[in-house]
Design a protein that fits this description.
Organism: Nesterenkonia flava
Distance between the termini: 12 Å
Pfam families: ADH_N, ADH_zinc_N
Mean pLDDT: 96
Number of strands: 15
Helix content: 25-40%
Structural class: alpha/beta
Keywords: NADP, Oxidoreductase
Protein name: NAD(P)H-quinone oxidoreductase
Largest sheet: 7 strands, mixed
InterPro entries: ADH-like_C, ADH-like_N, ER, GroES-like_sf, NAD(P)-bd_dom_sf, Quinone_OxRdtase_PIG3
Length: about 325
């Protein structure tokens, strides 16, 4: 089959399309003929050499696909056998940039009703990330206020809609007026232009001086001080990305005084059982919200499989909102 590998570390030019052996599913696994691939920040971080795949995982990049189950591993249980021929999405630790993938059947969900098969490729990684962190880690409750950094990216556009469905109040950061308008359409109560407004003072203004209960952060070190100052008492800072660096100083006195918590998590390196539990939760709690229209699909642009370099160049530009996909 055809698949992409990174020929060294660098820009999108290091993506090489090559021939590799077809994966063979083991017991409890399914083989998926890929229809769509979702691009994620992790793909870029792996490409530049700072986020290698976990030990034992293929070097083929990509964390999520949609497609049709073509085969089932020998010795699989009956419920796994029943997946053959079904349209599904799958959460991966790697291997998505390929014509076929083999994956633990517990990390697979049916395509939500009414969703196009290729569009579905951009769902499972963001849904699992948002649900496992906002509900699983931060325990966001209705009527709490949550600040989402990067509200018009793949994670952000999903998180804003999910928070609205939960009955929470969402604030977000954006880079321009056009993105602010989109964020507010997706459920943000207010969009803060990080290029023009001071984050801490604007958050205090919007919350009557109290601060926010939860911050969902993909930036990391660059925003750490401002994030801690923007949290309300008993606030939780959930860090899932390091776009703004990995090292910064924290004011422990401020954290003690306000009883703050910093939670840092990744999804990719979790064990198979933990991922299975997350995927199960997504199927039970998130899929109904998609099927009833409370969360809409935010596909920004679809590239052909042969255009993976162009797709990553576009992703790197920061111009996109929502998800960028590859179509096979």
């Amino acid at each position: 089959m055809r698949a992409y590998l990174y020929n060294g570390a660098g820009g999108p030019e290091v993506l090489d399309l090559t021939e590799v052996p077809d994966p063979v599913p083991g017991a409890g696994e399914v083989l998926i003929e890929v229809a769509g691939v979702g691009l994620n920040r992790a793909d870029v971080m792996q490409r530049i050499g700072v986020y290698p795949p976990p030990k034992g995982v293929t070097n083929i990049p990509g964390l999520e696909v949609s497609g049709v189950v073509a085969a089932v591993g020998e010795g699989s249980d009956a419920w796994v056998q029943e997946l053959k021929g079904k349209q599904v999405v799958a959460l991966l630790a790697g291997g998505a940039y390929a014509e076929k993938v083999s994956v633990d059947a517990r990390h697979v969900l049916p395509v939500p009703a009414g969703v196009d098969l290729v569009d579905a490729a951009g769902l499972i990684e963001v849904a699992a990330t948002v649900h496992s962190n906002l509900r699983g880690e931060a325990k966001v409750a209705p009527r709490e206020t949550v600040l989402v950094h990067g509200g018009t990216g793949g994670i952000g556009t999903f998180a804003l809609q999910y928070l609205s469905a939960l009955g929470a109040t969402a604030l977000t950061t954006v880079g321009n007026a056009e993105k602010a308008q989109l964020a507010e359409q997706l459920g943000a109560a207010h969009a803060i232009n990080y290029r023009e407004e001071d984050l801490v003072s604007r958050v205090k203004e919007l919350t009557d001086g109290r601060g926010v209960d939860v911050i969902f952060d993909v930036v990391g070190a660059k925003y750490l001080q401002a994030n801690l100052k923007s949290l309300a008492p008993d606030g939780r800072l959930v860090i899932i990305g390091l776009m703004g660096g990995r090292k910064a100083e924290a004011d422990l006195g401020l954290m003690l005084a306000k009883r703050l918590r910093i939670i840092a998590t990744t999804l990719r390196s979790r064990g198979a059982d933990a991922k299975a539990e997350i995927v199960r939760g997504v199927g039970e709690e998130i899929w109904p919200l998609i099927e009833n229209g409370q969360i809409s699909i935010q596909t920004n642009k679809v590239f052909g499989f042969d255009e993976a370099r162009a797709a990553q160049e576009y992703f790197d530009s920061g111009e996109h909102t929502g998800k960028v996909l590859l179509r096979l």
